[in-house]
């Protein structure tokens, strides 16, 4: 029996997570994308703590006009701004099993423009 789309994504995500992990010095920037929204978290996997997070559902970003790709870039900038306030400058990017294309790519570019290094 063939795997569903979400099962394929989960397999890819697990394969990615075997190789990358967030530390206190270089936490993991993980992305979750739904059909409507996009979410980003910066996570320290060694301590099991979420350092900061941003999403398209945040009050300041939910009011913005534009399509989902433009919103993803704003979310990337917002998570980078929050991370720099928390003292994080370098991260490991976890695309969450999604293709590095479209909204995921724009979120990464927005985070780079915001000052994160990866």
End-to-end Cα distance: 38 Å
Tell me the number of helical segments per DSSP (H or I, 4 or more residues long): 4
Name of the level-1 CATH class: Alpha Beta
Structural class, by secondary structure, is: alpha+beta
Residues in helices, as a percent range: 25-40%
* Average of per-residue pLDDT values: 95
CATH-defined topology: Nucleotidyltransferase, domain 5
What is the N-to-C succession of helices and strands?
HEEEHHEH
Count of folded domains: 1
Low-confidence stretches: none
CATH architecture: 2-Layer Sandwich
Structural Rg: 14 Å
Order of strands in the sheet with most strands: 3-2-1-4
The major pleated sheet works out as: 4 strands, mixed
The shape, in one word, is globular
Number of strands: 4
Strand content: 15-25%
Describe the overall structure:
By secondary structure, the chain is an alpha+beta fold. It has one domain (about 5-115): Nucleotidyltransferase, domain 5. Helices cover about 40% and strands about 20% of the residues. The chain has four helices and four strands. The protein has helices at about 5-15, 60, 70-85, 105-115; strands at about 30-35, 40-45, 50-55, 90-95. Strands 3-2-1-4 form a four-stranded mixed β-sheet. A hairpin with a 4-residue loop joins β2 and β3.
Briefly summarize what is shown.
It contains four helices and four strands, in the order H-E-E-E-H-H-E-H. The protein has helices at residues 5-17, 59-62, 68-85, 103-113, and strands at 28-33, 38-44, 49-55, 92-94. With 118 residues, the chain is an alpha+beta fold.
